[in-house]
Amino acid sequence: MTLEGMDWCHYRFRSRWDLDAQPAAVFAVLADGADYPGWWPQVREVRRIDERSGAARFRSLVPYDLWVIVSEARQDPADNVLEIGFSGDLEGWARWTVLPHGNGTRALFEQEVVARKPLLRRLALPGRPVFRANHALMMRSGLRGLRAHLATKPARPSGPASPPYGGNAV
Length: 170
What we know:
Layout: E1 10-19, H1 23-31, H2 36-39, E2 43-50, E3 53-58, E4 66-76, E5 81-88, E6 90-101, E7 104-115, H3 118-122, H4 124-152
Antiparallel strand pairs: 1-7, 2-3, 3-4, 4-5, 5-6, 6-7
């Protein structure tokens, strides 16, 4: 693909988080999107719209807010998969896959989005390395926050998690 044919506003991200908690506990926390601002500093705000959607505001090191409408696409405790769709400043999807790993859990995060916010689109080519680094920083901070949050939770028995009331993974 040539530089002229590449969509510089299109991003794919993938992160792997290894956690010292059982998969059911990790799944339950990740499924509760309303609680993300309590443990993930860059998730600044989450407002419920209905049982399957909400509005979220993100901000990391780069000084701009991203607003998205988040819609639950899949919440499958049997397969330990959470998937959401985005619209707004970002359009696309994100998915958590929660797997047993050693004595704990591996949470695989995958995301594919297109930046729709006008400033991000104008700065797409020169800003791309900065935006990718900003996302990596946000993910590292989220991992630290989730580890600390899980450390304060009582141990739960292993097995499939029951989805929390109104869970929408952000």
